[in-house]
Amino acid sequence: MCVLIFMCGSLLSIFYLVIYLAFLKQSFLLMLWLLLEINHINKDFSPYRKKNRTTMLRFVVTLFAVITSSTCQKYGCLEGDTHKLKPSREPNMHECTLYSKSSCCYVEFTEQLAHSPVIKVNNSYWNRCGQLSKSCEDFTKKIECFYRCSPHAARWIHPNDTAAIRSVPLCQSFCDDWYEACKDDSICVHNWLTDWEWDESGENRCKNKCIPYSEMYANGTDMCQNMWGESFKVSESSCLCLQMNKKDMMAIKYLLSESSEESSSISSSEEHACQKKLLKFDKLRGEEGEQTR
Predict the structure, then answer these.
(1) In the beta sheet, which residues pair with residue 165?
(2) Cross-strand pairs, 198
């Protein structure tokens, strides 16, 4: 990026670049910085002053720092205890293979999820109310894999906690299926992130008695939007949402687009395009299934 900037060789080129980035990210802070910096240059920049080069260099360095921080934020991983700095291939993953081509977790982490029943992940026990049923465990693994391994999880990074996510859009069908899979299992916490009691060894313990999921949560929506605190929300769309499977790549393409990134509403054009891609995907999968019979 620095090479590109220096090759431009003119303040006007850099100005246009910053304007483009500012609108691209719709960042109020970046726009504010731009106005202040240009005002400073208007005062200090003159072809007859010796400090021209210093002013220009400071402008470029500051610009590069802003761009770099923005880019790292967008393409890096969450800053959790098991996360990489940036995603990379993990071809030998034991679980979470959906993210093997670009993973934010190491293969060693997935060893904890490779055997059923899963007893604990790091210091968090999954069996405080008895072993999870296989179907419930499978959904719990999907959520754990997304948080730990997905290269896209940082797209929804929590503004106050770089190791956390917030408002990841899940499909209603996924939440309903998750609830059905777990409703007869037992649980003792409403929020898995905050409601545990942690002992001196750093292991989670129940504060309250174990009750069925169906008593803890009213339905799939209630479970998805509360079990992991603010981490997930149920999407209004049936396509622009995640299902923790291969279809997610199509949804993410539109979710990462500019209008979806900053807007709380769903674009009808994006919804239509996503649905069209989804139908094509289902058709191809169906044809592949026919060929393997």
Answers:
(1) 157
(2) 204
At 23, the amino acid letter reads F
Residue in the structure block whose two tokens are 């990489």? 84
Cis peptide before 117 (omega within 30 of 0): yes
Q: Please report how the helices 268-292 and 248-255 are oriented relative to each other, as an axis angle in degrees rounded to 10.
A: 160
Strand partners, 293: none
Q: What is the pLDDT of residues 181-203, one digit of tens each?
A: 999 999 999 999 999 999 999 99
3-state secondary structure of 91: coil
Give 136's contacts (C-beta < 8 A, 6+ positions apart). 181, 182, 185, 213
E-only strand ranges, the chain:
83-88, 103-105, 120-121, 124-125, 157-158, 161-165, 168-170, 186-187, 197-198, 204-205, 211-212, 232-234
What are the tokens at 167? 């408002």
Nearest by Cα to 116 from 130, 100, 105, 132: 132
Distance from C-alpha of 137 to C-alpha of 193, rounded to nearest angstrom = 17
C-beta atoms surrounding 284 within 10 Å? 10
Query: Residues 113-129: what's their mean pLDDT?
Result: 94
Reading the block at residue 220, the tokens are: 């799939």
Q: Pick the closest to residue 167 from 261, 114, 107, 234 (CA basis).
A: 234
Tokens 């409601």 found at:
195
Element (H, E) at 231: none
Q: How many CB atoms lie within 10 A of CB 3?
A: 7
Question: How far is C-alpha 1 from the geometric centre of its chain's CA atoms?
Answer: 25
SS (H, E, C) 161-206: EEEEECCEEECHHHHHHHHHHHCCCEECCCCCCCCCEECCCCCEEC
3 vs 251: which has the higher pLDDT = 251
The 10s digit of each residue's pLDDT in 245-271 is: 998 988 888 887 744 444 445 566 777
Closest-CA residue to 178 (of 82, 245, 113, 78): 245
What lies within 8 Å, CB to CB, of 26 at 6+ separation is: 258, 262
